[in-house]
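Allow me, if you will, to draw on your knowledge of protein folds for a short while. I am sending you one protein, given as its amino acid sequence and as whole-number tokens for its backbone shapes. Kindly check, if you would, that the fold set down in the tokens agrees with what the sequence suggests. The record follows directly beneath this note:
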Amino acid sequence: MPKDFDEYQKHAAVIIGAPYGGVKEQGSGIYAQNLAERGFVALAFDPSFNGYSSGEPRHLSSPDLFVEDFSAAVDYVGTRSFVDRNQMGVIGMCGSGGFAISAAQVDRRIKAVATVSMYDISRAQRNGFKDSLTEEDRNKTLDAIAEQRYEEFEGSPPVLTDRGAPIGFDEHTDPIGREFGEFYSTPRGYHHNSLTQFTVTSSMSFMNFPLLTYIKSISPRPILFIMGEHAHSRYFSEDAYELAADPKELYIVPNAEHVDLYDKTNLIPFDKLESFFNENLK
């Protein structure tokens, strides 16, 4: 809540989704705090089956449910007496960027969308990083997942994806792995609820359900894509920007990498986010 919060007034609200594998106590909580300081009612949430949100099996990942989480958050925020239902926006960080866009495609209560260091998880799962996965590679992965499904159906515990936080890393770790490790596996960003892992069998659904198919239908509601100049994930935001209809904006943060925009408040463009939502939530 804003410091000068008046429960008898109607306020604009912003809902913030955590990075894929993250929880509300990390980056999305930082965004919520800073937006509240700038006059917005702000909500950060844990995705279903993760963090303090309920659901079994734990650490399930689902394109449908993670998109639905945004609409569920709109349900909650929009029924608060102090929130103007016509002034609700969303921010999706990393993987939540794709989920936020997908939610806005069908949930017209979302009046403005901003993404930060966006990852399109469905594209990444199906095609690999920078679309490097071959069909043979994909089929091999799907065959392994199918066998894992049999094992879990017959009583084996769910298997999680490779190495979760805390992750060991050193000067020999690949740059992307080191970037994530320096956040999730050090006091900078570590939280016991953020394993950065999901069940192996979850990735099958992402390969089958693309998230951004109807991105043009968000228009005339605006989309702001924020990315770091040196982010390894730039191509996700750039390609989504090309797919989207107007009004849209691609905002590049100088000298920033992907994870920098999770928590480095000297780099996160809060002034830009404030002006974007003030202009479009009215």
